[in-house]
Design a protein that fits this description.
Strand content: 15-25%
Number of strands: 7
CATH superfamily of the largest domain: Spore Coat Polysaccharide Biosynthesis Protein SpsA, Chain A
Bound molecules: uridine-5'-diphosphate, magnesium ion
CATH class of the largest domain: Alpha Beta
Strand order of the largest sheet: 3-2-1-4-6-5-7
Radius of gyration: 27 Å
Order of helices and strands: EHEHEHEHEHEHHEHHH
Mean pLDDT: 86
Structural class: alpha/beta
CATH topology of the largest domain: Spore Coat Polysaccharide Biosynthesis Protein SpsA, Chain A
Distance between the termini: 26 Å
CATH architecture of the largest domain: Alpha-Beta Complex
Largest sheet: 7 strands, mixed
Oligomer: single chain
């Protein structure tokens, strides 16, 4: 029998734990003949009674397990801890606030059984989202896909299932600042997708504010693409070449073809062009230095060189 780990990061979700558990029971019951389940909560330093609620469940159900963080480390780290500690042949991540519809778990398992290594939940847009989150999300994905080397699917969520092979590879990442789903996308593997409509949060409020999301977005740009670094260099090249051309134009006009030239320039204008030229050179140099820093960054995070999907002997 195959074993499945459900990984649930929870931060201040005390009112949601029991209803989530009830829902999981009804969904998992028909599957129990074929699978065993491990329900792994990661209590991300909650300030309410989330820990106690999970403890209660552990008393009556041995399949429930819990990792308690010493303080709040954020969802990305919480899901990472869950993946590090789960033991199943596959791991399924879902939110504790019941926004991810648990009734789709059989569909995820089905796609997995049919050969997908990663099954990703794609969130259909919901009207209840604030417009700023919707518009922001659109802009974020279109920029990211233009500048990044890894393909990123819009609205892909953390509601996803990973095969053991993927989890083992994931556990080799050593970088500390991380976007879990970005890293999973980086890994590749065979993927399948499931569309879902997110429910409203059952209790409490979302702890991801627009500001937190913006920070996460900026970090994703940085970690998935070198474009922000290179852009300074490109601007430098542009400024240098433009000012070189106009400088040459002024120079020729002033000293060689003084009598036929249509435009004349004052000395301070010459100086201005010269300074702009130097600024361009400086920006180019900064761009160059950034590339070296990027290389250092890549060496420091020590990502695996390659990922093997299947070895055949
Ligand atoms: N979460 C967490 N640590 C945090 C913030 C959130 O483990 O610091 C969990 C939270 O309990 C929930 C999931 O991550 O299970 C998604 O969080 P939330 O509902 O606040 O965000 P959104 O629904 O906007 O993605
Ligand atoms: Mg939520």
């Amino acid at each position: 029998m195959k074993s499945i780990s459900l990984i649930i990061p929870a931060y201040n979700e005390s009112a949601n734990i029991a209803p989530l558990y009830e829902k999981l029971q009804t969904v998992l019951q028909p599957l129990r003949g074929r699978y065993t389940f491990e329900i792994l909560f990661v209590n991300d330093g909650s300030k309410d009674t989330t820990g106690e609620e999970v403890e209660k469940l552990m008393q009556k159900d041995t399949q429930v397990q819990c990792i308690n963080f010493s303080r709040n480390f954020g969802k990305e780290i919480a899901t990472t801890a869950g993946l590090n500690h789960c033991s199943g042949d596959a791991g399924m991540m879902l939110d504790a606030d019941l926004q991810h519809p648990a009734e789709l778990i059989p569909d995820f398992l089905d796609k997995w059984e049919k050969g997908a290594d990663v099954v990703i939940g794609i969130r259909e847009e919901s009207r209840s989202d604030a417009w700023i989150k919707r518009v922001g999300g659109k802009i974020f994905y279109s920029i990211l896909n233009k500048i990044s080397d890894t393909e990123i699917i819009p609205n892909a969520t953390d509601f996803r299932l990973l095969d053991r092979a993927v989890i083992d590879e994931f556990n080799r990442f050593t970088e500390t600042k991380r976007l879990t789903r970005g890293l999973i996308d980086w890994l590749g593997f065979k993927r399948a997708y499931i569309n879902f409509e997110a429910n409203d949060r059952l209790h409490g409020t979302a702890s991801y504010s627009v500001w937190k999301l913006t920070k996460l977005a900026l970090h994703s740009f940085m970690s998935l693409s070198l474009f922000p670094l290179k852009v300074v260099g490109y601007i430098g090249i542009l400024i240098t070449s433009l000012s070189f051309i106009s400088g040459l134009y002024i120079f020729l006009g002033k000293y060689f073809f003084k009598w036929y030239w249509p435009l004349t320039f004052s000395d301070s204008e010459d100086l201005a062009i010269f300074i702009v030229f130097l600024v361009g050179i400086m920006l180019m140099s900064i761009g160059l230095i950034s590339l070296y820093i990027a290389n250092i960054h890549e060496e420091v995070i020590k990502r695996p060189l390659y990922i093997i999907r299947k070895e055949r002997r």
